[in-house]
Amino acid sequence: MQFFHRACRLVKSELNTVTKLPKRIWVTRVATKGNLFPCVSWNVLRRRAMRLGQASALTCTLYLCGCGGSLATGSLVASSTNLAFGTVAVGQSASATVTLQNPGGDVVQVSKINLSGQYFSSSGSSASLPLMIPADSSYTLSVQFNPGAAGLTGGQLTVTSNASNGSSSAVTLSGTGIPVPSAVNCASGAITGPGTDNCTVTLNAAAASGGLTVGLSSNSAAVTVPSTVTVPEGQTSASFTAMIVTVSVPQSVAVTANVVGISESFALQLGGVASSSYAVDLTWEAPASSPDPVAGYNIYRAVSGSFAYQLLNPSVNSSTSYTDTTVADNTSYTYYIESVDGESNQSVPSNSFTVSIP
Q1: How far, in Å, CA of 113 to CA of 98, rounded?
Q2: Contact partners, residue 307, CB within 8 Å, separation at least 6
Q3: C-alpha to C-alpha distance for 272 and 190, rounded to whole angstroms
Q4: Which comes out higher in pLDDT, residue 160 or 273?
């Protein structure tokens, strides 16, 4: 017995011009617009297709044999048994595809496509079923991962069919959601002269186990921020300090927080301070006795009459003197000093003292 196999797309004219086929031609399975025909003869197929008005759109996989034989059901092979989406920002979406290939044999009928696992979805899983995959053909499913929380998420794509190599094909799904900044804010928002501002970065979801490291930056040398800040596990925000030096002209400085390339910024407004020919030299005495060794000092200043004290020194001042070169003419300033130990603990403030600039 001799067998022949070919895949074809028949149009109406071809139905009437086939002349070199055996007398008895059997089509093992034929699908046309969702209708599945069992094994039927060529003439019966023609009559059914014409009755449905679908002869001109008839798509089939044709198996020919001299004595009415048929081929075994085809197999189904997935292009991958594991789809790993890696790290995806919470609120963002990533896509991947898996192709179901029928390398030969009869048509494979997919009866069910199931998707499990939170935050996974598939456009292909809503396809009209049953789904027919002819021999030497394939069907591609698109799977999306859209995490709504931090951490690792797993799932599975399961395809049920009549394939000869197994009725169920499974693809493992995995992806990790990572929170990203939703806002950056600084308490003062506007500062004139040297000082500090307490800033906060807020995430769009709570940090996972171990916390989350957020990158920080400033687009001006006038504002210095730490390179990173860590949001604790289960929390959505963390604070950091921006250090500001005096600028001569007003300007806006962007303080930016970044995670996996997604960032948020805050515009910190700096007021310009006209240069003065005066400077204030400050000196003080070290504490006579202290339970902790003194590592240095912090110097604070406010315009007299105001309680908005600003830290002048960007790092701990190790000596007992400091020169303030950022004063403005016709202004009075009030100062106080705090000592700092090796663990950055600060003492109570010293007595305050006032200086008037002519």
Answers
A1: 13
A2: none
A3: 11
A4: 160
The CATH topology of domain 77-177 is Immunoglobulin-like (2.60.40)
Span 313-357, pLDDT tens digits: 888 999 999 999 888 888 888 999 999 998 889 999 999 999 998
Question: What is 283-315 written as a DSSP string?
Answer: E-PPPS--SS-EEEEEEEEEETT----EE--SS
**Pairing verdict, β 82-89 and 168-178:** parallel
C-alpha distance from residue 218 to each of 120, 167, 244, 257, 286 (Å) = 37, 58, 11, 9, 35
Are β-strands 190-192 and 262-271 bridged in parallel, bridged antiparallel, or unpaired? parallel
- Statement: residue 39 has pLDDT above 60: no
pTM score over 0.85: no
Q: Which residues of 193-223 are buried (b: 16+ CB within 10 A; e: fewer)?
A: bbbbbebbbbbbbbbbeeebebbbbbebebb
Whether CATH 3.30.930.10 fits 280-357: no
User: Which strands form 108-116's sheet, in the order they lie side by side?
Assistant: 82-89, 168-178, 151-161, 108-116, 131-133
Token pair listed for 1:
């017995």
Specify the fold of 181-271. Immunoglobulin-like (2.60.40)
Tell me the domain boundaries of the chain: 3-65, 77-177, 181-271, 280-357
Task: Pick the range with the lowest mean pLDDT from 70-84, 111-125, 238-252, 275-289.
Answer: 70-84
User: Is residue 130 reached through a cis peptide bond, with omega within 30 degrees of 0 on the bond before it?
Assistant: yes
Grouping H, G, I as helix, E, B as strand and the rest as coil, residue 59 is strand
Tokens of 319: 């000596």
Calculate the alpha carbon distances from 134 to 96, 102, 224, 235 in Å: 23, 7, 64, 52
Cβ pair 231, 219 in contact under 8 A: no
Which backbone phi and psi does 84 adopt, to 5 degrees? -110, 115
On the CB side of 282, how many CA atoms lie within 13 Å of its CA?
25
Tokens of 311: 């830290």
**Is the torsion defined by CA of 13, 16, 22, 26 positive or negative?**
positive
